[in-house]
Amino acid sequence: MDQYPDVNPNIYYNLLKDEYLINLFEKPPLHIHLNLLGWDCTSNCDYQCQMLVTDDRVLEGLEIYQFHGKWPFLRIIGIQELFSTLFSIGNFIPNYIGFKLLWKHYKIEVSKKNIEFTNLYFVYLLVSVVSMFAWFFSTLFHLKDTWNRERLDYLFAGMTVLTGFYGIVVRFFKLYKLENNIKRRILGIVCISLYIAHVIRMLYDWSYTYNMEVNVIFGLTQNFLWVYLSIHQFNKLKNKKLTLIENIVNKDYNWTLTPSFITNPDVKLVDYLDQLISIIETNINSLDIQQSVKKTYIFLFSVLLLQCFVVLNFSGPNIPFEKVNTEFGFLSNLYSQTGQFKTKLQSESLALLALGGSSPYHLTDKPFFLVLALKVLENLQGAYISLLDIKNFHLESSELVEKSFNMDSIEKKNPDSFIIASICWWRARALQVQQSLLSDISSELTSLSLSLLCNRVIDSIVDHENPNSNYNQNLLIVYYLEQAKIAMAGDLELQTLDAILNANKISGLSLVLTGCKAKMTKFQQKSTATLTVLAKSNETLLRSEQSENSFDPQDVKLNDDLFLERPQYDSIGDSELLNLHEEEENDFVKRIKLDYSNISSFENTSTSVNSKLLPTAIKESDIPEQLSNIDPNNQPSLSSLDHIQLMLRMQAILNNTPANNALVNEELIAIVQRVIFSSQNSVNWLIFARALWYRSLLETARPRTVERGILQLYSLVEELGVTSEQTARLFPKTEDEINFPLEFIQTTDLNKTLTNSVRLRYIYLLPLMPKWSMDSKLAEKLLELGALKSALEIYERLQKWTDAALCYASTGDKEKSILLINKALEEDPRDARSWSVLGDVTNDPQYWYKAWEIGRYANAKRNLAKYYYNPPKESGLTKDLQKSIDCMYDCLKSNPINFDNWYFYGCIGLEISNFELSAEAFTRCVSLDDTNSYAWSNLASSLIQLNKLSEAFTALQKSVNSGDSAKKSSKIWENYMFVAVKLGRWDDVLYASIVLLNRNKEHDNGDSSIDLPILEKLVELLIAEPYDENKRQTYYQKSCTEFVCEMVPSVVLHDSRIWRIVAKVDLWRKKPWLALEDYEKAYRAVINNPELISDESVWNTAVQACNDLVSAYENFGEMDGRHGAGDVVCKDWKFKAKSTIRSLISKGKACWEYTDGYEQLQELKKEVLNF
């Protein structure tokens, strides 16, 4: 701005000569806020001169001067340009907020390993960082103008404009893509070069005009590109045509089919399907495209139907069909028809899905989608007959399977072999979905699925030009994992293992189960043995996989005061736990034993570690080299396909081992933990949810984790279960559940990954679990835990009438319960269980007898036994133990492996004093469940009555060492202690005394747990052997001393007898000062008794305590004190002895002056006076 006059420096000189003006200037030192903002004496003087010159020229009406090339400014609280400063700060804040959002998205893309979007977000971050620096230096410049700040402000402003130009060019021309890496780098070099030239030009000749021109040119250019890009993207989304939807879903359909389907009984759903598919094909043929593309469109339509069905019945979240008529067209209209139409559509769809006498669940949501998908896939695949045609069910299984598919069209030379192979694959998936709806295994569906998913199919899809590509690797792994899942659903052990081993060979997953030292609790000092699974994915497979950005299912935390959320491992390769259970594993754990000789793809698999579902390393040296250096607390991420392989291995072990086997459960939990403890956002939603499901089922068998297990089941059922939208929830909806309906409706970007897509990605590789199976399993677990009311809603919703009747009966709704049972009996009059349940509800024994006559239902006899054991008042019967025993005898003959029945039988035996019967019954109980402490205790009670003390004590030892010790009755420990006393097992007596004291202490009745004769006997045994402080104490001496001197006094303060016992031990330990304190406490315990002045026996006890205390003063007062430095136990013991006697005489004079006790005190007083 050289056209404006600048100030003449001589003016400053003349001002400084004027003494009057000098007096107007601020005198040093400057205010602290000016110093903080960068003002000094020179700059402050310069500013004040500017103000004086400007004010003077304004008064004279003269032209205002510029100073140093800039207009004069008004300083406010030391800030040179206040509003410009606020403006700069205001620009910095949104840039900082944008930076945080960009950084969040950048980390997500890095975790996904999405290189292209990582490049784009990195460019955005660069622009954001440079902008923040520019506005920061702009703020400094406007606070106080200095030479350095001005240059930083202007230079970073130029950098911001040029960096923004670089960013829009990268975005506009898509230079962030991998194929444009070189172009993007060249652009970066050019921009950097331009900026370096700009800086040199400015430093050489600082020109404001040049700087503004450069910034305006590049700024306008980038703004133009941003506006053009925004308009282009908007028009692209607005004008997007979904040809497939328009021509398949939203075309004009002949809805005259609908009324004819309702009114004409001769029109079956199969005929309706044929006409519907014909219309769909006609609409597709109207498109001017190649025939192969038309076939692809119809195939994709069948996939759409199958995916919708799976989302509705398996993975969720629910699709808002009522709000997306445009996208789903006639599919939505079908279910908006009259109730009669929907009823017939539902019933006939379910009938078509039935196979081999097994029907699908009657509350399946929109089964017509699956039926239509199966029919379309059958037509596309060229099947000779349809599995949906009831007329074909008379065929034998082999013939039915053979004619249900056609593989002749799959040839390498056929250009359509890829799409035909894809159709076969998806038809196999649809058949497996149908299989999951049936209650029994269908050999036809299993055989047909494996036949469709054959080598010819995979050979038509793989890339033969690049055999070692990542595409081929992923495809083959999926192929073998899906084969394993199909074989597992058909209960084919050999094929399951074969497929898993083939998948492992291709994926390169390294896996081993080994022992570890770990801390399981928060206060644990010493690590204990546990199991862990070490696993590592192949790096190539891991790099080729992109993870999804999705919300994980609700992972319910343990929140336990004792146990850690996850174990803290110290070392690997510990053999303690594996060796401990080696014999148990060999005897009880059923391992999969297969003939590997027919597996052509593997040699010597019987001796290979990979031939096992869960390879085991007992010693650290047995761990494979690639796994030996893994930190079990921070294991590397696994690929999703390897996670699925782990889950399939777990399911295979679970299917082929006995239930509730402790060692197998530890192995399964180790597998689940390997998945759940993976790093955040590295596990697919469905895989993580399935791992949580398995963990919950395993944890419900553990007392410490049963609460978390049930809550986790609730969380998953609420998110995935039947009609979850209509039920009250324990857990709030997750963010993806809340946002999904709106995102599903509004999203027009086909590249955006929605929640349903994430959940569906791997659903066909894992065992399919319909929603209602999860609800049923939750209800089953709730019933196991006795939560009948909570299970009621689930059974009623699932329409399991007998189970619902039991729940209603437990809530007191007898009429509803009977109504539901009669409904079940109408369907099957020979249902013995329903007859028995009817007897339970009505309390009428005739129904139990009916159930026994029909099917020898054991529970009916058990209920009769309980009826005669405790007959209701209205029956007019009296307690008949013999009839009860007779009924239980019949019950146990029918079902001899029921623990509860044997337990009740034994209790009746105890009640009638038939101890031989009760001993036999409880012996059978412990043989069925050797962890039940009450069964062991009752067995011990029976054996005690039979005078078999040794056997009884063994049973009591089992009782106290089994189950959860926190839940054991104190009576068990008392019996244990008394039997140990009779047998002279004083170590066990001491142990039981300690346990009883601690248990009763928690309930504030610790003094009631002290058995004084036993305590005295324990002390007698303790002090029988002289105390040697230089000799290491025995376990008994150490424990008994701690028990008597520390634990007992902590709960008993008012019993003088106990304090005298404690004094004996302290004296035995050669600590007379403690013994004297014990006698003092014994004395205080008596004299503080409120009955001292009313009960002579209490008075006599106090006299005796006083006598003992005086003797203690006399005997211990002159002994060496606790410090051993010439001090004594009690230097003024004579005074204390006299004071004690006088105090007690004064207390008893009014009430007991002429009693023997009072006279005894007088005699004691005379003796003390002679000390």
From TrEMBL:
The top of its lineage is:
Eukaryota, Fungi, Dikarya, Ascomycota, Saccharomycotina
Q: Which organism is it from?
A: Pichia californica
Q: A Gene Ontology CC term for this entry?
A: membrane
Full protein name: TPR-like protein
Q: Which PANTHER family match?
A: TETRATRICOPEPTIDE REPEAT PROTEIN 27 (PTHR16193)
List, alphabetically, the PROSITE patterns matched: TPR
Q: Might you name a Gene Ontology BP term for this protein?
A: GPI anchor biosynthetic process
- The record's TPR repeats, renumbered to this chain, cover 798-831
Domain of life the protein comes from: Eukaryota
